Amino acid sequence: MSKLGVGDGAPDFTLLNQHGVPVQLRELLGTKNVVLYFYPKDASPRCTTEARAFRDAYNSLAAADTVVVGISSDSVGSHRRFAMQEDLPFLLLSDPKSDVRELYGVRRMLGIVPERVTYVIDRNGIVRHVYAAQLAAARHVSEARHAVEGLTPP
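Now predict its structure.
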């Protein structure tokens, strides 16, 4: 599938979070916007930088009725350790077969390393912003915050 773009409907999915609990996208939408960020690997240097930046922005995003959700192919246990180690207050979802990554059109660089892509999805399930940059991990957060600021409150 090609990468989702602005104006596209966000495909629904269900994945396990870091506590082993199923999370369905459509259950998060309706009253909340969602920042959905795909990242390559728990505890890698750039992914840790990105996760810490989302952690530090968490309160301001939550105040804007926005939920943060990170997705990688790491296991539930890996996500649990990473979330505890970095004190992450948001959901990390395990996509071990990369089904959701493929559903959203998030590719692998050189066929190996999963791409780093952030989607801002409004409460109606419409993609309002997409940012892809492998090396500028922390910028994903500023891009998401700016996009969330532009969304109409309920």
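The chain has a mean pLDDT of 93.
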